[in-house]
Design goal:
alpha+beta; five-stranded mixed β-sheet; four-stranded antiparallel β-sheet; 24 strands; 12% strand; disordered N terminus
């Protein structure tokens, strides 16, 4: 769209004034296409327009499944008077944080520094260069105690821009400089000698985590409480390593996994987990269901099964949770092309009004209508459905809170299909159908490994379908580029971030381990090589490749690397994990050193902030374990399958499993995976397993019992 020629046009009559989000592929942006606000997508054009009009940019960041984003949209962005003022004095810009996490990250840092809080919707006021000078989150339509109205904020910012411009710009420059300085503390060089990992550091992290555990409900901290997926992966790996803190790690993981599985956070009817709980006991979820949460939790519950469970949370119960989670992901988020959609909304629209969680809520009367008197009363009792809803007048979510007895389990198994059928007749939450590469990579890992552990080949097949979608739609082999987002099987928008490359490679390595198909190993290898070229410059690692000049300005013109886990592992931690796995498969010392350099972040985080360093800790646990390298070779046979399965069901932290591909249709000239080179079956032709650490191998073994015994010896003390 051409920019207006006038130097400083005011009001709503500048050429091209309109809301232009209608053609955007993002479901979140399209939700705002009918607003009277003249929204524009994030990009150079919007900031150039702000410079020509000599006004600030109002940046609003959210996502499609966000409840409070819907609230602020209805209260303020759909209000004509508010829109008129916003259009007259600002260039309004909408961002889908899931499409542009680089934008979200830097302005979240700015928002937290300015306002002391963070969250979505995020409301940030920027100079035309992209520097933040005022920010907040949700603003109501009228003033509330401790929170001004949105109109008050708009007027105050406009006044500051007109009357005190120099001070506002100076503050913005100072904030950008502070963000740049903060980046120095997390800078990672990949070309130096790595620090030696201290096993005691991981035990100390377990001790620190115990101090913030909620031992009654499970999990960490108080309300709001989020599923600690990456931390749980660390605790499970640490439990397998058999150190002095292994049992403490196992117990903490058990309480968290049991607490979530038996709560309202877990959809007791259909499977899958909500984003977080408003209450510390997991009884009132925030109902949006995200792919990234469920992909990680599917894997974690499968790994708990692999570990063997304990009395607090038996492996059999965890297997049921994992199986239902995988089924829910495929049924509710699966798309025709093979990819997985991002999320289901927190809200359900009933009679034109957004109601949070409406599709999931029950009352005694609604249970009675479906089940009849006797069953309804018993289900209400065991699933905590009272006369007074704990979410709204629409009712409460079903949640036992405790393990079900055998008779209760039998009843629940009998009535659940009827409840699901009745619930399916209700209005359903909207689905955000964008496909995010990294989250689909996490899903591949979860589906493949759960399929192997639970003996569910259908989940493994689904993982392959997702991988084929990513290879076909998101991966540009010619240019070595992974695109972050696709819509309707078409890649759109920016190149992937470090987390996308790392999570996709992670998923593909898991898929290779389970299937033995070299194509997935080769694709993971190519993605790692592309990530090195894209995100490593002058020996330094960065989260992005500079997709936006405005983001670069806002972070003080310094490449950013965020070492902290959020809803997903940090890109740096994810990359360390795949570099370690790749070094185990390939024997590449250089990649092992790079992983070690990233793990150099750990000493400053392990005991200071272990809750946001879970994946670094999990990767460090794998590094201390070796990780074990397992090569399965020999002719295709039932014994080969048994040996392979025994390895996949081992809890050895981070083990790399390579299966000799005996498929006659394997591509000609496709080189062997290095871990399998020069390995052969037994002299009698039977299959056998080579177990190695740092490419130094034990004598090969040919029985499941011998494999399990040797793994137990190698894993013991791997901390």
């Amino acid at each position: 769209m051409p920019l207006p020629e006038a130097a400083s046009p005011r009001g709503n009559n500048w050429p091209g004034a309109a809301n232009v989000l209608g053609a955007e592929p993002s479901a979140y942006l399209r939700q705002h296409a009918a607003n009277p606000v003249f929204w524009r997508p994030f990009g150079d054009e919007a900031f150039a327009l702000a410079a020509v009009r000599d006004v600030p940019v109002f940046l609003s960041i959210g996502y499609a499944a966000c409840h409070w984003c819907h609230v602020m949209a209805h209260e303020s962005f759909e209000d004509q008077e508010t829109a008129d003022y916003l259009n007259a004095h600002f260039v309004p810009v909408k961002v889908d944080r899931e499409e542009r996490p680089d934008v979200d990250s830097v302005y979240m840092t700015a928002t937290q520094a300015i306002s002391g809080e963070g969250g979505w919707p995020m409301s940030v006021f920027l100079t035309p260069e992209g520097l933040a000078f005022h920010a907040g989150t949700y603003f109501p339509p009228v003033p509330l105690p401790g929170r001004p109205s949105f109109r008050n904020v708009l007027e105050a910012v406009h006044e500051a821009w007109v009357e005190r411009r120099e001070a506002a710009e100076q503050n913005a420059r100072g904030l950008a400089a502070n963000i740049a300085n903060a980046q120095l503390s997390s800078a990672v060089r990949l070309d130096g000698p790595p620090e030696v990992l201290d096993a005691q550091l991981l035990s100390d992290a377990v001790t620190v985590l115990a101090r913030s555990e909620d031992p009654d409900a499970g999990g960490f901290g108080s309300a709001p409480k989020f599923p600690p997926s990456a931390v749980l992966e660390f605790l499970i790996r640490h439990a397998a390593a058999r150190s002095e803190t292994s049992e403490a790690a196992r117990d903490m993981a058990a309480r968290a996994l049991a607490g979530m599985a038996r709560s309202a956070l877990c959809d007791q009817i259909d499977g899958g987990f909500a984003r977080y709980s408003v209450t510390a006991d997991w009884s009132v979820p925030h109902f949006e269901k995200m792919l990234y949460d469920n992909a990680q939790l599917l894997r974690v519950y499968a790994h708990w099964v692999r570990l063997g469970g304990n009395d607090v949370f038996p492996a059999e119960e965890a297997a049921g949770v994992a199986s239902r989670c995988g089924d829910w992901m495929l049924a509710s988020l699966g798309l025709p092309g093979g990819g997985l959609a991002s999320s289901l909304d927190a809200d359900t629209v009933v009679d034109g009004v957004h109601h949070e969680g409406a599709a999931y809520l029950w009352t005694p009367a609604s249970l009675l209508e479906v089940l009849g008197l006797g069953d309804a009363e018993e289900v209400a009792r065991m699933m905590n459905i009272g006369a007074q809803g704990n979410v709204s007048e629409l009712g409460s979510p079903l949640h036992p809170g405790l393990p079900l007895s055998a008779p209760e389990s039998a009843l629940w198994h009998r009535v659940r299909p009827a409840l699901l059928a009745a619930r399916d007749l209700r209005n359903q939450p909207a689905r955000d159908e964008k496909v995010v590469a990294g989250w689909n990579g996490l899903a591949i890992a979860g589906l493949a490994e759960a399929g192997a552990v639970l003996d569910r080949p259908d989940l493994v097949a689904a993982a392959e379908n997702v991988a084929e979608y990513l290879e076909k739609v998101h991966w540009n082999a010619e240019h070595g580029l992974l695109v972050r987002v696709s819509h309707d099987s078409r890649a759109r928008g920016i190149g992937g971030l470090l987390e996308d490359y790392a999570f996709c490679a992670e998923g593909l390595f898991s898929l290779y381990a389970v299937t033995g198909k070299k194509r997935w190993y080769r694709l993971a290898e190519n993605i790692i090589r592309a990530a090195e070229a894209r995100f490593v410059e002058d020996g330094h690692l960065a989260d992005s490749a500079g997709e936006s000049a405005q983001v670069f300005n806002a972070q003080g013109q310094r490449a950013a690397l965020d070492p902290f886990d959020n809803a997903t592992p940090s890109g740096a931690a994810g990359f360390a994990g795949v570099l370690l796995t790749y070094s185990a498969y390939s024997g590449s010392h250089a990649h092992r050193l790079m992983a070690g350099n990233i793990l150099g972040l750990l000493p400053s985080l392990a005991t200071r902030a272990p809750r946001v360093a879970g994946w670094l800790l999990a990767t460090a646990q794998a590094a201390l374990a070796g990780p074990v390298e397992a090569a399965v070779v020999g002719p295709d046979s039932p014994l080969l399958s048994e040996l392979h399965s025994a390895l996949l069901k081992s809890a050895s932290p981070g083990m790399a499993v390579a299966l000799q591909e005996n498929d006659a249709v394997s591509p000609a000239g496709d080189g062997e995976v290095p871990l399998l080179l020069h390995r052969a079956g037994a002299p009698d032709g039977s299959p056998q397993v080579y177990l190695c650490r740092d490419m130094v191998c034990e004598m090969p073994v040919g029985t499941v019992a011998d494999v399990q015994s040797m793994l137990a010896r190698m894993t013991s003390g791997a901390s």
